[in-house]
Write a structure and sequence with these properties.
Blueprint lengths: L12 H6 L16 E8 L18 E4 L9 E4 L4 E4 L1 E4 L2 H17 L11 E10 L7 H8 L4 E2 L6 H15 L8 E4 L2 E5 L4 E8 L1
Parallel strand pairs: 6-8, 6-9
Antiparallel strand pairs: 1-10, 2-5, 3-4, 6-10, 7-9
Length: 204
């Protein structure tokens, strides 16, 4: 693949028809210098995300710790010199379970001996594919069945969608830190046959 050549989506037409997840990625053999990695993250179905569509990252939720009698537990905060409460931060089950599933999928597709990107990471393309809406016309549905994509112009936004998969890529060891990403190209969200995320990365 040439340096400026875009990711050919036709490579994954068979996957989009069958939903079969690749076993191992073989596109990044060289483990030094500029490398590339292409991944297919299959949609993860959950009771709170029945279609397995891509989901955005959510802000941490929190609750105040209480004792067995329901009383708020307090302590003296030496930094602020005030009485404070203990706050527990957490994510919703759908976020935690999806993150775990995505990380496992990423690891399963990384070449053996992969070393994380440490410099100049570029997101060449990232496509978030959603399940078609029930209200779509027969014309749109037929177009999607034939392999076309319909732009999705409603929430969630692409920034928050990428934050979740970006965290997963870091946890899986694709790159050391998401701050290494200096450019993002061709970020799309569309309706297609199989809910998934197609992502193509380059880095050193």
């Amino acid at each position: 693949m040439g340096k400026d050549q875009e990711w050919d989506i036709s490579e994954y037409k068979e996957y989009l028809k069958t939903g079969k997840i690749p076993v191992k990625n073989t596109t990044a053999i060289e483990l030094s210098g500029e490398r590339e990695l292409k991944l297919i993250i299959h949609g993860f179905k959950h009771k709170d995300n029945k279609n397995g569509d891509p989901i955005p990252k959510q802000s941490d939720r929190n609750y105040v710790r209480r004792d067995r009698n329901g009383n708020v537990i307090t302590f003296y905060n030496r930094k602020t010199c005030r009485i404070d409460v203990i706050q527990i931060h957490y994510q919703t089950p759908v976020i935690e379970d999806t993150t775990r599933n995505y990380v496992n999928q990423i690891v399963s597709q990384m070449p053996l001996g992969w070393s994380a990107f440490t410099n100049n990471v570029v997101v060449e393309s990232c496509m978030f594919i959603f399940t078609p809406l029930k209200g779509f016309s027969k014309r749109k549905l037929k177009s999607i069945e034939e392999g076309d994509f319909i732009p999705k112009t409603t929430k969630p936004d692409t920034d928050n969608l990428f934050k979740l998969i970006g965290d997963c890529l870091e946890k899986a060891g694709v790159y050391k830190n998401d701050s290494l990403i200096w450019k993002k190209k061709n970020i799309e969200k569309v309706y297609g046959t199989v809910p998934c995320i197609l992502i193509h990365l380059k880095g050193e």
